[in-house]
Amino acid sequence: MKILVINCGSSSIKYQLFNMEKEVVMISGLAERIGEPEGKLTHIKYPDTEEELTLVKEEPIPDHKAGMNTIVSLLTDKQHGIIEDTGEIFAIGHRVVHGGERFHTPTLIDDEVIKTIEETIPLAPLHNPANLMGIRVAQALIPRASQVAIFDTAFHQTMAPEAFHYSLPYEYYEELGVRRYGFHGTSHSYVAKEAAKLMGRHLDELNLMTIHLGSGASTCAIENGKSVDTSMGMTPVAGIIMGTRSGNIDPGIMIYLAKTKGMSIEELDHVITHESGLKGICGLNDMRDIHRKAKEGDMRAQLALDMFVRRIKKYIGNYLAILGRLDGIVFTAGIGEHDVEIRERCCEKLERLGIVLDPEKNKQEHEGPLQINKPESSVALFVIPTNEELEIAQQTKEVLESEGLK
Questions:
Q1: Rounded CA gap, 354 and 347, in Å?
Q2: Of 152, 327, 339, 358, which is the active-site residue?
Q3: Where do the CATH 3.30.420.40 domains begin and end in the chain?
Q4: In the chain, is it the N or the C terminus that has fewer CB atoms within a 10 Å radius of its CB?
Q5: Quick check: 308 pLDDT over 70?
């Protein structure tokens, strides 16, 4: 069974073609700067017996339809492709950022599903329109394939009302859907399942905390395999400090800035989304640059690091209180997988909570999963590379099997 995974952004298309019998990637690629004067498409073929073959095309990509047309033609190209006909693609798994309250699980796409995704656009105005565009173009270009929507928010739909409600007038929830939804669901789900495998236990008997640290960052408390709390909220701006997003702040600050600086809603939105977080504190949003500047004695870079770690540690304490028992903590995504210092600092002074990191194991070079706790630690500590595309492909396959489509 061949499954194509598509992740459409506002100006990009990420794609991977999987052979699900072996769960291996056959093709991967990225079309970027769509709609801009200088577009770029990077396409990589992974043959079974030959070295990978990379093609880079730098030319304008007028729109998503043009990008998808190029991608489909490359999939069937004699040199750079790996299939003879798009009919070999059994299904397409689409990443959809926001499923609102309607979607709790991966869903086979039909007209009603598309209509509901459209209705959630106000909750994710930057993402859902692009996700929908990818669905519609894929339906037109590869009509024989089943189309499945995998929602970032679905994994967190197991949260209890006391976890997802905000202390605002209740009618805002009833009329406008104002509540905590959470994001990065495919990543949290994937690494939690991988942690369970490494521990030799069933996921539904484990209490875990998963920490996704990239440019966007979030935490998740998982009780008996289900999400019971998460740091992101109604939008992906909430929670821990991120590259350019503020994370949790006093909401009264927005009112104060609007009054004292005369800032519009659009300006405030731009500030908390694109000019805040690590960038707002020290002018940099790449953690490697921030470490370098901190070592050079830059006080604001050091402050950004200290704030970043402090907010993560507060969530560890919060989730331990909610879960009552913590079996494991997983670090994942770019920073979580590669930043030795951040992981070490996040676990400092937590020995009384049963969290005992092994500094030497933490420094080990690794490509796959790595366990980094000392033997006496009652909480297992892992670094697990996330694979959201594989998770989407696996969930797509599960939907097809549940529908009797094999």
A1: 10
A2: 152
A3: 2-151, 201-388
A4: C
A5: yes
Class of the CATH domain delimited by 2-151:
alpha beta
Please provide residue 349's backbone torsions phi and psi, each rounded to the nearest 5 degrees: 60, 25
CB of 327 closer than 8 Å to CB of 208? yes
Say which residues have a Cβ less than 8 Å from residue 284's Cβ, sequence separation at least 6.
278, 290, 293, 301, 304
Q: What is the mean pLDDT of the chain?
A: 92
**CA-CA distances (angstroms) from residue 382 to 106, 278, 344?**
27, 25, 12
The closest alpha carbon to 165, from 173, 154, 157, belongs to: 173
Tell me, yes or no, if 152 is annotated catalytic.
Answer: yes
Q: Rounded to two decimals, what is the model's pTM? A: 0.90
Q: What is the pLDDT of residue 191?
A: 97
CA–CA distance, 23 with 21 (Å, rounded to integer)? 6
What sign does the CA torsion over 264, 265, 269, 270 have? negative
CATH number corresponding to 201-388: 3.30.420.40
Residues 6+ apart with CB under 8 A from 119: 100
